[in-house]
Design a protein that fits this description.
Elements (H helix, E strand, L loop, with lengths): L1 H15 L9 E6 L13 H18 L2 H7 L3 E11 L8 E11 L4 E9 L2 E14 L2 E2 L2 H8 L10 H12 L3
Antiparallel strand pairs: 1-3, 2-5, 3-4, 4-5, 5-6
Helix pairs in contact: 1-2
């Protein structure tokens, strides 16, 4: 239930707030509340993914891509996530979630997301995402054009290449 309040707040601030370049890094701010905790009294692992979900939508809204993608009848799909937990987030601690575009291949867009707390990286993740329409997944060249991204395609960093290899191994 509490995530719906954060979703509404994020939606309003992203829609009516400052716009950002899709080529840059997007930041969104949160605070770890008691309902975000696990039995160890720090933010539970599943919340990291939930906050990253909110950050990805904020990234697309502020970059102008969300409106264009939805107008084209496309919806987001997360193909996989690879996350590394580094530091706990304590009750009531403020933290930021950053999202940035890394690269893409013929089918997937790769984003890096970090959760920063107290000046430290609490977690880092690489997300593999796409958008689907009635005919299924949309090729990324078409997605990039719809999103309005005009920056250069970046070379895949080594950790993205390793993630792609890991995802291939995990295919069932």
């Amino acid at each position: 239930m509490n995530l719906i309040v954060r979703l509404i707040w994020m939606w309003l601030t992203a829609t009516f707030g400052s716009k950002r370049d899709m080529d840059g890094e997007n930041h969104i701010h949160f605070r770890c509340m008691p309902w975000d905790l696990d039995l160890n009294m720090h933010m539970t692992n599943s919340r990291y993914h939930s906050f990253m979900d909110l950050s990805r939508v904020d990234f697309m809204i502020r970059g102008g891509a969300w409106k264009r993608l939805r107008a084209a009848g496309l919806g987001p799909v997360l193909g996989s996530s690879t996350i590394r937990f580094r530091r706990p987030i304590a009750p009531f601690q403020k933290f930021d979630v950053t999202t940035r575009l890394l690269t893409w291949d013929e089918r997937w867009i790769y984003l890096e997301q970090r959760i920063l707390a107290g000046g430290d990286v609490a977690s880092i993740a690489v997300m593999k995402v796409t958008f689907v329409g009635r005919q299924g997944p949309v090729p990324t060249d078409k997605l990039i054009a719809i999103m309005g991204y005009t920056g250069p395609k970046r070379e895949a960093p080594e950790h993205v290449a390793r993630k792609i290899a890991l995802d291939d191994v995990l295919k069932v």
